[in-house]
Amino acid sequence: MKKLLMYAGKRAREHLAREGLKPADVQAVPGAAGGPKGLILHGLDQFLFSDWLNDKVERQLIGASIGAWRMAAACSPNPRAAIDRLAQQYCEAQCYRKGATIDEITAVCNAMINTIVADESQAMAQHNSNRLIVWVNRGRPPVYAAGGRAKKRGFAAAVLANTASRGTLGRYLERIVYSPANAPVEWLQQPFDNLPTEFHPLDQHNLKPALLASGSIPFVLHPVAQIPGSPPGPYWDGGLTDYHLALPYHRLKGLVLYPHFVPSITPGWLDKWVKHRRAPEAWLSNMLLICPSPEFIASLPAKKIPDRSDFTRYNFDHEMRMSHWKAAMQASHQLAEELAAFIERPDVSKLLPLGDARR
Question: Hey, is 179 helix, strand or coil?
Answer without folding.
Answer: strand
